[in-house]
Design brief:
The complex is a heterodimer of chains A (115) and B (113).
Chain A (H helix, E strand, L loop, with lengths): L4 E3 L2 E4 L5 E6 L6 E7 L5 E8 L14 E5 L5 E5 L8 E8 L9 E2 L3 E5 L1
Parallel strand pairs in A: 2-10
Antiparallel strand pairs in A: 1-3, 3-7, 4-5, 4-8, 6-7, 8-9, 8-10
Chain B lengths: L3 E2 L4 E5 L4 E3 L2 E2 L6 E8 L6 E7 L7 E2 L2 E6 L4 E6 L8 E9 L4 E3 L3 E6 L1
Parallel strand pairs in B: 2-12
Antiparallel strand pairs in B: 1-4, 3-9, 5-6, 5-10, 7-8, 8-9, 10-11, 10-12
């Protein structure tokens, strides 16, 4: 079956531009997560969607970052007025919270480079 | 405060030997889950093993086992019979209740031939 997909795989943008990153979770998964991973670093939690509940936005680093999840499926992470420190790999994951372990399945990531 | 602590930035192990990667966590919840993920140089995140806070037995998955010491809040990953393909970054993570998952900083494991 299809796993988590993300697009684009790579994005190069100029400082100050807005970017949109897309995540298609595994069909039927109720939870969706966004993380950021800077070069050689661990995963930084950004935002978490669970069903129809209000998202947990506690990890968003600034108000330039926002995310939405339409129809409980596809999610878009938007970064406005990008800065060079936004350069990182943005990882999306989904899970089905009805299973025993609530394991997260990760997408391949979007590598964002801000020049 | 850090929820997940991995104190070993890098580890080396000889091929075919066993290695333990350390992980400690901090939570006041009674219900939580502990996870280990492997991230090879390709960048993908690969789920390895899970331990629930109420599980009395240590989790095992093939060559991976999780040494769960609840009172010490420790969830170390043991890899037996290391292989060259085990060289990667390893991340410990915790989920509290139904919440999000928080990751440690990772340990880079290098397996020497």
């Amino acid at each position: 079956g299809a796993g988590v997909s993300q697009s684009p795989s790579n994005k190069v943008t100029e400082k100050g531009k807005d970017v949109e990153l897309r995540c298609d979770p595994i069909s039927g998964h109720t939870a969706l997560y966004w993380y950021r991973q800077s070069l050689g670093q661990g995963l930084e939690f950004l935002i978490y969607f669970q069903g129809n509940s209000a998202p947990d936005k506690s990890g968003l680093p600034s108000d330039r970052f926002s995310a939405e999840r339409t129809g409980g499926s596809v999610s878009t992470l938007t970064i406005q007025r990008t800065q060079q420190e936004d350069s990182a790999v943005y990882l999306c994951a989904s899970s089905f919270l009805g299973s025993g372990s609530y394991e997260q399945y990760f997408g391949p990531g979007t590598r964002l480079t801000v020049t | 405060a850090q929820k997940i602590t991995q104190t070993q930035p890098g580890m080396f192990v000889q091929e075919k030997e066993a290695v333990t990667l350390d992980c400690t966590y901090d939570t006041s919840d009674q219900s939580y889950g502990l996870f280990w993920y492997k991230q090879p140089s390709s960048g993908e995140m690969i789920f390895l093993i899970y331990q629930g806070s109420y599980d009395e037995q240590n989790a095992t998955e093939g060559r991976y086992s999780l040494n769960f010491q609840k009172a010490r809040k420790s969830a170390n990953l043991v890899i037996s019979a290391s292989q060259l393909g085990d060289s990667a970054m390893y991340f410990c993570a915790m989920r509290e209740g139904w919440g999000d998952m928080r990751f440690g900083a990772g340990t880079r494991l290098t397996v020497k031939p």
